[in-house]
Amino acid sequence: MLLPQDIAPEKSLYVIGGRIIEIFNVINRRTIDTKSLYNLYISEFAKDNLSFSYFLYALDWLFIIGFIDIYNNTKVKRCF
Predict the structure, then answer these.
(1) N or C, fewer C-beta in 10 Å, the chain?
(2) Domain membership flag for residue 4
(3) Mean pLDDT by groups of 10 residues along the chain of 80 residues
(4) What is the CATH number of the domain that holds 65?
């Protein structure tokens, strides 16, 4: 799932996570609601047809590597 060999690269958590980081850079905010972040992702990368589950997997990966923090069960905060 991190580096899938049998599916499209758009489903890679590296690609999805990188795009989420890109969105954080564009909106220039440190905190955003999870659903709003997903809506921004979909509006920017609509052709990928990414499910909310895959989006949450990417958020989990970004949390594990220390890029984001999740609080109040709905807010995503960029750590650096």
Answers:
(1) C
(2) no
(3) 67 90 93 96 89 93 95 90
(4) 1.10.10
